[in-house]
Specification:
This protein has a single domain, classed as Jelly Rolls (Sandwich). The protein has 205 residues and is α+β, with helices and mostly antiparallel strands.
Length: 205
C-alpha cells in the first residue's frame, strides 16, 4: 500500500513539474499581429506573464495557459511593434534577448475599449504601445504585465490581451533619418560656436 502511495505521489510530482515548464513557442510572420494574453487565473504559473490562452491551430496557439515565447530571425532591419488591447490601462515589460523594454505609460483607469482590434488600439492614444528597431539577427521575446488596468475603485484586473507584430522598414529611410540627425547636431554645434565667438568680442564703442 505504501509503495502504491509513493508511486502516485511521484507521478503527481512529475505531472506538476512538466506543467510548470510547459511553454508555447510562436514563430511570427512579418506583417501579422500575434495575440498574447495575461490572466493570473488561467496562467499555469498563476502569474502575469504573457500566456497562450487563444485557440488557433494555424498560428500555433493551443490555449492551455502556458507561458508564451516569440522566436524569429531577421535578415534585414525590422520594427517590433507591441500594443495593449481589450480595456486600456495596461503597461507591459518585454524582454528581447533578455534586455528589458517597457511600453508607453498610460493611465490605469480608462473607459477605452477595443476588444482584440489591435489596429484600432495602435492608433488610440489611451492604449500603451512600443516600437523597437531591431537589427538583423536571432530574437526571443517574452513579456509580462507591469501595470494593470484598474476598475473604478482602483482594483487591478490582472487580465488583458495584447499583440505583437514585426514590420519591415526601409533601410534607406533609416539612414536618411540618421543623416538628418547628424546634420542637425553639427549645425547646432556650429551655431553655438558662432554665438560664443560674437559674445566674446562684445560691442565696440
Amino acid at each position: 500500500m505504501r509503495n502504491n502511495l509513493l508511486l502516485i505521489a511521484s507521478l503527481l510530482l512529475v505531472g506538476v513539474m512538466s506543467t510548470s515548464v510547459s511553454a508555447t513557442e510562436i514563430h511570427p510572420v512579418k506583417g501579422n499581429w500575434y495575440l498574447f494574453d495575461v490572466d493570473e487565473v488561467v496562467s499555469l504559473s498563476g502569474g502575469t506573464e504573457w500566456i497562450d490562452a487563444q485557440n488557433d491551430e494555424l498560428l500555433g496557439y493551443s490555449g492551455d495557459g502556458s507561458a508564451l515565447t516569440f522566436s524569429f530571425s531577421l535578415t534585414n532591419s525590422a520594427l517590433l511593434n507591441l500594443v495593449d488591447a481589450g480595456l486600456a490601462g495596461d503597461v507591459f515589460t518585454l524582454l528581447i534577448n533578455g534586455i528589458n523594454y517597457t511600453s508607453s505609460t498610460v493611465a490605469a483607469s480608462s473607459a477605452a475599449y477595443v476588444g482584440i482590434d489591435l489596429d484600432a488600439a495602435w492608433v488610440a492614444s489611451e492604449f500603451s504601445r512600443l516600437s523597437v528597431l531591431l537589427a538583423p539577427g536571432d530574437y526571443t521575446v517574452t513579456g509580462f504585465l507591469k501595470q494593470s488596468a484598474a476598475d473604478e475603485y482602483g482594483s487591478p484586473y490582472l487580465a488583458t490581451v495584447g499583440g505583437l507584430k514585426i514590420v519591415d522598414v526601409d533601410e534607406s529611410g533609416i539612414f536618411a533619418l540618421f543623416g538628418i540627425g547628424a546634420f542637425m547636431l553639427l549645425f547646432n554645434r556650429q551655431k553655438w560656436r558662432i554665438a560664443a565667438a560674437f559674445s566674446g568680442k562684445g560691442v565696440e564703442k
